[in-house]
Amino acid sequence: MVKVGIVGGTGYTGVELLRLLASHPQVELQLITSRSEEGVAVADMYPNLRGYVDLKFTAPDTEQLKQCDVVFFATPNGVAMTQVRELLDAGVKVIDLAADFRIKDIDVWQQWYGMQHACPDLVAEAVYGLPEINRDAIRVAKLVANPGCYPTAVTLGFLPLLEEGLVDSSGLIADCKSGASGAGRGANVGTLLCEVDGSFKAYAVPGHRHLPEIREKLGIVASETVGLTFVPHLLPMIRGIQATLYANLKDTSVDLQELYEQRYADEPFVDILPPGSHPETRSVRGGNMCRLALHRPQDGDTLVVLSVIDNLVKGAAGQAVQNMNIMFGMDETSGLDMISVLP
Amino acid sequence: MVKVGIVGGTGYTGVELLRLLASHPQVELQLITSRSEEGVAVADMYPNLRGYVDLKFTAPDTEQLKQCDVVFFATPNGVAMTQVRELLDAGVKVIDLAADFRIKDIDVWQQWYGMQHACPDLVAEAVYGLPEINRDAIRVAKLVANPGCYPTAVTLGFLPLLEEGLVDSSGLIADCKSGASGAGRGANVGTLLCEVDGSFKAYAVPGHRHLPEIREKLGIVASETVGLTFVPHLLPMIRGIQATLYANLKDTSVDLQELYEQRYADEPFVDILPPGSHPETRSVRGGNMCRLALHRPQDGDTLVVLSVIDNLVKGAAGQAVQNMNIMFGMDETSGLDMISVLP
Amino acid sequence: MVKVGIVGGTGYTGVELLRLLASHPQVELQLITSRSEEGVAVADMYPNLRGYVDLKFTAPDTEQLKQCDVVFFATPNGVAMTQVRELLDAGVKVIDLAADFRIKDIDVWQQWYGMQHACPDLVAEAVYGLPEINRDAIRVAKLVANPGCYPTAVTLGFLPLLEEGLVDSSGLIADCKSGASGAGRGANVGTLLCEVDGSFKAYAVPGHRHLPEIREKLGIVASETVGLTFVPHLLPMIRGIQATLYANLKDTSVDLQELYEQRYADEPFVDILPPGSHPETRSVRGGNMCRLALHRPQDGDTLVVLSVIDNLVKGAAGQAVQNMNIMFGMDETSGLDMISVLP
Amino acid sequence: MVKVGIVGGTGYTGVELLRLLASHPQVELQLITSRSEEGVAVADMYPNLRGYVDLKFTAPDTEQLKQCDVVFFATPNGVAMTQVRELLDAGVKVIDLAADFRIKDIDVWQQWYGMQHACPDLVAEAVYGLPEINRDAIRVAKLVANPGCYPTAVTLGFLPLLEEGLVDSSGLIADCKSGASGAGRGANVGTLLCEVDGSFKAYAVPGHRHLPEIREKLGIVASETVGLTFVPHLLPMIRGIQATLYANLKDTSVDLQELYEQRYADEPFVDILPPGSHPETRSVRGGNMCRLALHRPQDGDTLVVLSVIDNLVKGAAGQAVQNMNIMFGMDETSGLDMISVLP
User: Fold this and answer.
1) pTM of the predicted model, to two decimals?
2) B341 in contact with D at a CB cutoff of 8 Å?
3) Complex confidence, ipTM
């Protein structure tokens, strides 16, 4: 049994981690910390966990965390970077679900996140936890930077094209739509039901923090600088991201359906839909799957890739568990084989 | 392994059965029939099942169904009653998720369902599949009538009161609210998103088919005729029922919290919340739990019971699986231990 | 032209007042105050008002307010009571949309609102602004207490019964359901989309502040103390209240449909639906109408009244405008004749 | 007073036309026809119209329609083309809200709509009713083809760019999202609440009927063939379209904000938001406005235009009324000045 601790699990990523870990056959949940909710039973805050999780939130306690095999940070950006070293030094593996270790370029990170990075050396050491490109490195990693939700959906969608150099990488477009859970559980006028329900809008078009993350990862894959226009939108619903991706094909004679199917043939959590399909976010709700479909409208040279994930699962907590499974040599799908709830 | 067949599984109850049975460790799904969808892959119709269920819908075929240990009918009312006898005679157990065998009083049934009953003798033999009142009978039943969704929520909420004779059973009120999935997957203007979203209404106030079912079952529990006003409402959401129940207490000195906790102490799927609680339907979404809370506002003699279930799980497919578990001597929670997805 | 000021118009009641007043043919909007949003253009905060309202929020300024003919208070409870006297003394009429002047019994008010009342004498003088019972008094009122949303829906539903003494007034039940806008625009975890959407629950069952208000007003109408069980619920939608009301008829031979039709025959904003109807909240969305339907299920002695309003219109801003129209001798429907948007 | 008839007004476009026309100060509603709903009171079908419209649906009757000054066709595609000539010959003006007269290229139309066109000569004569490009022609038109919802949002968004030749018109992208009301009121599994709510998907990516319409109109504006990738998506909500438009700028030195503001300075129903804005569909819900915002992320050469309309108003019924106003020399905003309901 892997002994697991969670730091800061009061948000939606936290409850989702708890849901997944509580059902994981090889995991023993040790503690979950929250300064603000200390003493509160987890199941009182998240009634779906009644009968499954009997932990209470405890005050952060490094000594207790050191007893764990792995610690997940589900904290705001900038927290993990101040606490991780001590755990790593004690031999504890760490998976950070925030952004502290995602971007290798420290200057870029500092510019977009508006703070000084506390441990650039650990950034260098951290492994970006997208198993579809970094599985071998994750297997031996001590510190995993769990990818952002948009970067997961976008990167998996563009990946085979960029690896093969099949598209003009200077003019990629990612028109992305996310449910409101991506904005977290903070008290915020902008995500009140009355502000979001029955309406739709783009946001952060001038620049969103996931842009540099996506650009860096796509650049590594493509072995060249990529140009990306990234427009996020807010959907009037809770869970789910769809990335609608546009790229100009250099060569329209390649069988892209076959390329994608082969690229992802051994991936347990990437599903290439049959030609002509339109994936629905509900088909992955609560599950760790990314479903992709390819279209070349009017047989032109614009490729459209439709990519859907559950932002809280493959886009956050599920991918974190997937990374843990890899890091500890467990079956990669362990604890992640639940079927999405539909309707 | 229990060999399972499903007749008519194209509706929401069908897909929910498939979700639960596909994850059930002791079940082998043999076939699922649908005249209209013959040849269609189940996973093409329900993309959440891709990778979990590789069956195709087949034409109804009694000989194949006879090879099963148990057959679930997820058909419209009036279908099962014409097909069940042949299966029972062949030693196959049957669980009907429709209303054909729910009401013992044939005249009442015929009046509310507007058709002649095809096999009154089997109605007499059938066991009403609410484990909380009929577990022993279910254990040896050949034919189980799976309860309606509203009747499940209402009966579990009133049960301890009526068993103990603590309330005036002539003036019970059940103000019930259901998500739209209770209306099924038929093409119907009334359940279009544009008709239901952002709005709320009562329906069928003059009389709903679940009224006689509830009245009969409560009457059995109370050992007297009960008077019930039942007002169903349609919620602008997919899953979930809340029954808000009102009853006049004969005696306000009884510790009702304790009564409920004791009555349901051994029930794996009934959860009595602490005093002062307000259960949310999302806390049981996708799960088989019924959560109850008790209130006596202003310490008066009106008791308010709040009862929530997922209409497709404890109110349909989950309860059917629970019944199967009991009928085959399996752990009653087998295949039903998934945690609700929240948010 | 009536010169109008609004104090504290940044919430949902405020924007709704602005929508209605901006289209009112006899109103001249003078100012709208908000300490927190001073200097912000109203249309920047509420983009639906772009092109219709070019005011900015200004700091509260009593001298400017004194230039108005009428001032609406759309402030939190406890604010108006400290500011109203000065305006009244200056001859300005006041309509308070909060609860400061709704309850005549000061002790009851202080108990439920948890504060000392600043001006009990003005409470005595204030007129409860439900035109259907107090039209004549409103006509000459200087200070109108605009009713709460639930009290409006419930009182209009029970009114004819209690006036005529047709029901047992000791055991009334009001099972009420409200959209989330009733909770206001404050940053609050409990009303985030992710907490409310796709779920349903009761709240405040032990006691809600609208209970004493309803009880007092029904008591006045009935000329006796009434017993009321009031259970509010939160709907996963923005606007709309349905009150489902239950009462025991003393005499089932009265033609209640006719009674209601006659009682409300001259009321411009109460609509009695034909027998057998189920009003939908969307049918009054954005409009000032209250629609009622009557049912006597199974011809029993329990009467069910279905009452729907838009909580922000007839339950708040619309009723306030209706009161203003009456107070200034204008056509009562002036500025309130817009058709609800459906779907 | 303009005497108005509506043919086939049972769908969402029909009820929206009724809402707008019933409040129009210069319109007299004469009749509304529907074969299927003959004899049904309009207000029984659409309860928001109770008290505002007392018409019943009548059987189609050409003689009665000939008494009108203008007839709106809110019928399925292919109906108006068989009935319009007789009305035009009788001097009645016609506004078709379906697609029969939108596309000038008959071959293209026949290919996409899968039927033979009944009157190509009338197509040639018809005026495409987008006032922002065709106001003068509309003023004298006898037959107006009311634009599709997506074409309205997309064309208004690209218009100034193409008129000025500022972008590469061979690689335009329109990533569009629509509420479910765009799919109409037909009984259809795909638009059930349980299929649409809480989920998101693209649809018709291989080809949507609005593609040739948009391409033709943009081509006329640009005076050259345009290349357009058009990807529609279904939003889990009722009303509203957002078109997120992408174009490659030939020259990044042009002040596009000023260009748009000038181009639309005199347009009553196009609103250019300040730089940095993100329009919300709710800001135009129930109103006839199109709101646009411009972004050039990271100061690159990709321009992003955000365009929102209410698909049932500016995208259908509202634009039809706007066209009527122009055709009859009335104030163009007459009957269209209602403020959007928010929240």
Assistant:
1) 0.97
2) no
3) 0.97
